Amino acid sequence: NAGVTQTPKFQVLKTGQSMTLQCAQDMNHNSMYWYRQDPGMGLRLIYYSASEGTTDKGEVPNGYNVSRLNKREFSLRLESAAPSQTSVYFCASSVGQGAVDEQYFGPGTRLTVT
Amino acid sequence: AQSVTQLGSHVSVSEGALVLLRCNYSSSVPPYLFWYVQYPNQGLQLLLKYTSAATLVKGINGFEAEFKKSETSFHLTKPSAHMSDAAEYFCAVSSYSSASKIIFGSGTRLSIRP
């Protein structure tokens, strides 16, 4: 039981390049989330998927797209990376989309855009 | 509107001393409140949560937090610090039932002196 896994762990992009961050969970959770974490700030929600087949914008969705490929996998795509997207990205999952449902986090992807 | 403020970006205590991490929130309705811990190079892990039941909430690793409505506070405490408690701690609040509305504080880094 690996929990929530994310790939890659580290990535360096040049401005304008694109990439996809992968996330998978093996806990049969319905809901999945993508957050970014910047120095001196808490986590901010980018996109979430309450259940398979649905996705919704979070607090900071601009510049990102997501795909809920199946119940296990939720990917985050940067179409044209910008230096402002330099951050640590965390994927999380939970049984349901309620605020009281515990979220389980992956180890993160550290992205640098030059 | 909801918000959360963590007082002190860095707290240092001696091993065996009391740990006190401060969190104040703003919410127009009774909120859900959370404390998460992040160990180096890992994702966040839920320590404890308040969901309008008992005001004193016990969590993992000997931590507890008390919900004080009159002070709009949800401070995290542990009677005796261990070296393994060194980590970043995040307070979070939600005035809504959906996980997509959880707001995270900016974090407090806890250091333990031998």
What does this structure look like?
The complex is a heterodimer of chains A (114) and B (114). Chain A has 114 residues and is mainly beta. Helices cover 0% and strands 49% of the residues of chain A. Chain A contains no helices and eleven strands. Chain A has strands at residues 4-7, 10-13, 19-25, 31-37, 43-49, 56-57, 64-68, 74-78, 87-94, 104-105, 109-113. In chain A, the strands form two sheets. In chain A, strands 2, 4, 5, 6, 9, 10 and 11 form a seven-stranded mixed sheet that branches. In chain A, strands 1-3-8-7 form a four-stranded antiparallel sheet, with no helix packed on it. In chain A, a hairpin with a 5-residue loop joins strand 7 (64-68) and strand 8. Chain B has strands at 3-7, 10-14, 19-26, 32-38, 44-50, 56-58, 64-68, 73-78, 87-94, 103-104, 108-113. In chain B, strand 7 (64-68) and strand 8 form a beta hairpin. The A-B interface holds A 4, 31, 33, 40-45, 48, 50, 56, 58, 90, 92, 94, 97-108 and B 4, 9, 32, 41-46, 49, 51, 90, 92, 94, 96-107.
For this entry, give a set of tags.
heterodimer, A: 114 residues, mainly beta, seven-stranded mixed beta sheet, four-stranded antiparallel beta sheet, globular, B: 114 residues, six-stranded mixed beta sheet, five-stranded antiparallel beta sheet, 11 strands, 0% helix
